[in-house]
Amino acid sequence: MYINQASYYLPSARVTNEYFASLNGLSNDWIVERTGIQERRKAGEFENTNTMAVEAVKVLQQNTGSDLKDVDLIVGGTYSPYDTVVTLAHFVQHHLVLEDAQAVSVSAACSTFLNSMEIVEGYFASNKSSKAIVVLSEHNTAYNNEHDTKSGHLWGDGSTAFLISKERLSPDDVEIKDIITRGAANVGKGIEGVMLKPANGGIDMPNGKDVFINAIQYMSSVTKSILEKNGYSLDDLNYLVPHQANLRITKNVAQNLGLSQDRALSNVQYLGNTGCAGSGIALAEHWNEYKKGDVIVVTVFGGGYSYGAMLLTL
Amino acid sequence: MYINQASYYLPSARVTNEYFASLNGLSNDWIVERTGIQERRKAGEFENTNTMAVEAVKVLQQNTGSDLKDVDLIVGGTYSPYDTVVTLAHFVQHHLVLEDAQAVSVSAACSTFLNSMEIVEGYFASNKSSKAIVVLSEHNTAYNNEHDTKSGHLWGDGSTAFLISKERLSPDDVEIKDIITRGAANVGKGIEGVMLKPANGGIDMPNGKDVFINAIQYMSSVTKSILEKNGYSLDDLNYLVPHQANLRITKNVAQNLGLSQDRALSNVQYLGNTGCAGSGIALAEHWNEYKKGDVIVVTVFGGGYSYGAMLLTL
User: Fold this and answer.
1) What is the pLDDT of residues A251-277, one digit of tens each?
2) Quick one: pLDDT at residue A99?
């Protein structure tokens, strides 16, 4: 299976660390030292998970120069839903006017990008789809308590979309060689590390240290696993695209793997933690920089816990 | 692929129509005439989507006489999540202590049962799973406005679970011959017929008539389609298991298809609309009544819109 094109959308409003300094006394230096985050985007009054998903798909239409009418499957990913009935997949189907396309939305927390890709892989394998959109959108600020000094300053909003085909359609397509996803609900504080209870208070991360430690460990080990399983070494790896939770996590994973820091893509500095969209946005931001022969691993870790890796080659 | 076993769980508290009569003046006769609903179950104070999912899985363990340790994939379905990060799939993984199982939760509104089954089909087809649990749980009352005289009286809570294997494991297994799912976001009032906006008011069904009409039409037509596609006629059909939204919808679908009413299974009278769990609970309630040679169609329609059918044979 192949990624034909990638896109992303960011709401225009920027929230700098100064906002949290005035709100709850966290200094810019304190936030940057612990997270690397300098600012994040915030969805506008009339924006939500569904509208941001459509914005990313509009950019995908522009980037492909196509109306995407041949798409037969839409997989939406979010843990910060605007509507769990009219999900982002259905909202995108409505935007594209794709009569009778298959549509479903999923969550495995911040790992959802790879679960969504793996679900597409399954539809391709069962011959029920040949062209799919994966669209990820997070409206973290709709569920965030900005006054929470543990994690209120971490979250940002954004969306990303990918056009995926079963067969190669162009020499420029990026091949998805392998995907691994796993739940890790029995690891550490898996079911109480990060939570988003929509009817009971929204985002909460009471056990950030446990999340931090396990994110580093699992993203490092699953990256090694997927490379080894497919006959690659760490020296072959051109880009690592980790979940964008915290710059220190990314740096630790790169260090664990013996990678120079510039090979680990990062947008958390200027976007904050954009949830399951973060690694997808990072992959999409650099879409035109990848070269023939490049080997890329996207690796994710999320609440639940959950983790995964996806191996891409050009 | 095969269903090895089925289970369901219902919270103990019953809410009768008299409750709504005293709350907002809707009479028992009025509710029964329009919906067939006489009572519904309500989750207890310490119950939620995740705990009810685990209760259904505990019954599945009892029914199978197995600890289910060989399960390698859990697909959770809900549109009324307790936690979108620690999803019901992850919570079930934690309960079963299934190290490294794949886990993801999905929503396509009231159609989610069949989307979940189709996702399992995909994992089987891509050789990433051979034994899976699909678990569906709805905590409608967590998001319902009981004072809403349009739809506040419709909703109930409950959960259901299915053990599914790629290969036949027993002569009693029920074969899944085919699954069809579709989004229908461009049909009628697809994106505004039913909604559940967790951060913006919960369940709302401002266009019940449009939902009613399209539910009848799509469940009738997709049932015909899946039978014809697989070489069966309506005369071959022993049981129809429709989405449990409204007894009048079920009766209309049966009438459209020329089926006697007793061949259409129904629990909406005593459970209300239990969302994506409803048709699964109905299938599970009658699990020991199906006989060799029986042909069963599960058909669903949900917000979004979304619809589907699953063909089962014994």
Assistant:
1) 999 999 999 999 999 999 999 999 999
2) 93
CA end-to-end distance (rounded Å), chain A: 12
List the CATH code of the domain at A2-165. 3.40.47.10
Cβ-based contacts of A78 with chain B (< 8 Å): 84
Number of CB pairs < 8 Å for A and B? Answer: 223
Cα–Cα distance measured from residue A20 to residue A144, given in angstroms and rounded to the nearest whole number: 13
Q: What dotted CATH number matches B174-313?
A: 3.40.47.10
| Residue among A89, A56, A168, A111 nearest A305 (CA) | A111
Span A171-196, pLDDT tens digits = 999 999 999 999 999 999 999 999 99
Q: What is the ipTM of this complex?
A: 0.98
Distance CA A218, CA B62 (A): 34
Helices (H) and strands (E) in chain A, counts: 9, 13
Asked if B190 and A94 come within 8 Å (Cβ–Cβ), the reply is yes
- The verdict on pTM exceeding 0.95 is yes
Per-residue DSSP letter, B176: E
pLDDT at B84: 98
Is A84 close to B109, i.e. CB distance below 8 A?
Answer: yes
**Residue (of B106, B136, B127) closest to B6 by Cα position:** B136
Q: What's the pLDDT band for B88 if we cut at 50, 70, 90?
A: very high
Test the B interface: residue of A83, A187, A217, A243 with most B CBs within 10 Å:
A83
- Give the pLDDT score at B48: 98
Q: Which DSSP letter does residue A300 get?
A: E
Angstrom distance (rounded) from CA A228 to CA A237:
11
Q: What is the pLDDT of residue A234?
A: 96
Are B84 and A196 an interchain contact pair (Cβ–Cβ within 8 Å)? yes
Amino acid, single-letter form, for residue A249:
I
Cβ–Cβ below 8 Å for A194 and B85: yes
Residue ranges per structural domain of chain B:
2-165, 174-313
B255 torsion bin: left (phi>0), alpha (psi -120 to 50), beta (else): alpha
Which has the closest alpha carbon to A194: A242, A248, A230, A140? A140
Count of CB atoms situated within 10 Å of the CB of B49: 29
Contact status, residue A190 vs residue A184, Cβ threshold 8 Å: yes
Helical (H) or strand (E) element with B32: helix B28-35
Diameter over CA atoms, chain B: 55
Closest CB to A183: pick one of B93, B121, B123: B93
**pLDDT score, position B200:** 94
- Looking from the CA of A264 toward its CB, the CA atoms found within 13 Å total 26
Determine the residue among B57, B82, B84 to mutate to test chain A binding: the one whose Cβ has the most chain A Cβ atoms within 10 Å. Answer: B84
Q: Mean pLDDT throughout A26-34?
A: 96
Q: What is the pLDDT of residue A207?
A: 93
